[in-house]
């Protein structure tokens, strides 16, 4: 579909929050030049405007991105339409080298981060606040209780979680529900054709818990934007080379870039995408993933090229799935059941 007649960007409800967001989220880790690879404010504004013109309404940053410049730039570019945008930011990672309490998931870190983010973003509320990562030392009930206070104060509307084991997220959701606290409505995971391990635990858990999932780095940290003719291709691992060959083949069939194919595949898995860009060409190419229609044969080839082993206990249970049908359970005796086990 030509970009000039592109259909409206698909929208969905963000888990149980009721907030409507676009399938493509604009990630702004590249807003700011402090890390040496980002964009200046003028280019960042153009990237944002291109995204908004395409129908996107969901923008994501973090308190540590480009040492805070990302939040400051984003605050200025959304200022004229703040209430029309779903604005999310994150906390967890330390922001001051010699002050350990500027990081972590505890209440002190949370309060300082939220107040700083509100000031940088030039707003009095954050639509979605993410726990950026599990800090492995703050009890989850302490984190949840502090987050609930932020929601009750009106400074945060909804909460999400990223880079955290499935069992920690699942336990957190159960605790929040039992105690009547604000619960996670969404989750971010690294997921792409080159990183499918969330299929083992994280994605099934999210589905069972009603969490909307956004894939960060859906281009495999940039690797999936490469092609077999790219310099350094032969130095990549054999599995990645296989994925890149397949995405290039499918891209040639459709007349689109390998990057669009990789992004379209993630969308077909039912996830939202966090797309970032350093140039207008990149943001336009990423937005073009919405126009890519993969047929069943192409999906199958991409699945096969990137397939991973699910491991134990998933493979064990899959091999014995037929033993647990109503028919099997009603006919076999206990000895047969014992023999079927491992």
From TrEMBL:
<dbReference type="InterPro" id="IPR036812">
    <property type="entry name" value="NAD(P)_OxRdtase_dom_sf"/>
</dbReference>
<protein>
    <submittedName>
        <fullName>Aldo/keto reductase</fullName>
    </submittedName>
</protein>
<dbReference type="InterPro" id="IPR050523">
    <property type="entry name" value="AKR_Detox_Biosynth"/>
</dbReference>
<dbReference type="Pfam" id="PF00248">
    <property type="entry name" value="Aldo_ket_red"/>
</dbReference>
<feature type="domain" description="NADP-dependent oxidoreductase">
    <location>
        <begin position="24"/>
        <end position="306"/>
    </location>
</feature>
<keyword id="KW-0560">Oxidoreductase</keyword>
<dbReference type="InterPro" id="IPR023210">
    <property type="entry name" value="NADP_OxRdtase_dom"/>
</dbReference>
């Amino acid at each position: 579909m030509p970009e000039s007649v592109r259909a409206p960007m698909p929208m969905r409800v963000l888990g149980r929050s009721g907030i409507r967001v676009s399938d493509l989220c604009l990630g702004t880790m590249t807003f700011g030049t402090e890390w040496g690879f980002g964009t200046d404010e003028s280019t960042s504004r153009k990237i944002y405007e291109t995204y908004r013109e395409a129908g996107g309404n969901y923008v994501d940053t973090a308190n540590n991105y480009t040492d805070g410049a990302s939040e400051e730039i984003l605050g200025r570019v959304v200022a004229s339409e703040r209430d029309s945008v779903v604005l999310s930011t994150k906390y967890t990672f330390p922001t001051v080298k010699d002050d350990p309490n500027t990081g972590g998931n505890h209440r002190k870190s949370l309060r300082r981060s939220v107040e700083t983010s509100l000031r940088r973003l030039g707003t009095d509320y954050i639509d979605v606040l993410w726990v950026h990562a599990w800090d492995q030392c703050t009890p989850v009930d302490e984190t949840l209780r502090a987050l609930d206070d932020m929601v009750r104060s009106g400074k945060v509307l909804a909460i999400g979680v990223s880079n955290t084991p499935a069992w920690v997220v699942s336990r957190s959701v159960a605790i929040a529900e039992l105690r009547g606290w604000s619960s996670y409505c969404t989750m971010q995971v690294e997921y792409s054709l080159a990183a499918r391990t969330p299929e083992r635990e994280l994605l099934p858990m999210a589905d069972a818990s009603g969490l909307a999932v956004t894939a960060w780095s859906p281009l495999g940290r940039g690797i999936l934007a490469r092609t077999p003719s790219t310099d350094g291709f032969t130095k990549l691992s054999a599995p990645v080379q296989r994925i890149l060959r397949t995405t290039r083949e499918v891209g040639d069939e459709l007349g689109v870039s390998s990057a669009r194919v990789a992004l379209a595949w993630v969308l077909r898995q039912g996830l939202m995408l966090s797309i970032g860009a350093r140039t207008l060409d990149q943001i336009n190419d990423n937005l073009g993933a919405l126009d890519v229609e993969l047929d069943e044969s192409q999906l199958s080839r991409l699945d096969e090229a990137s397939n991973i082993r699910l491991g134990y206990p998933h493979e064990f249970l899959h091999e014995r799935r037929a033993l647990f049908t109503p028919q099997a359970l009603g006919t076999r005796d206990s000895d047969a059941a014992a023999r079927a086990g491992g």
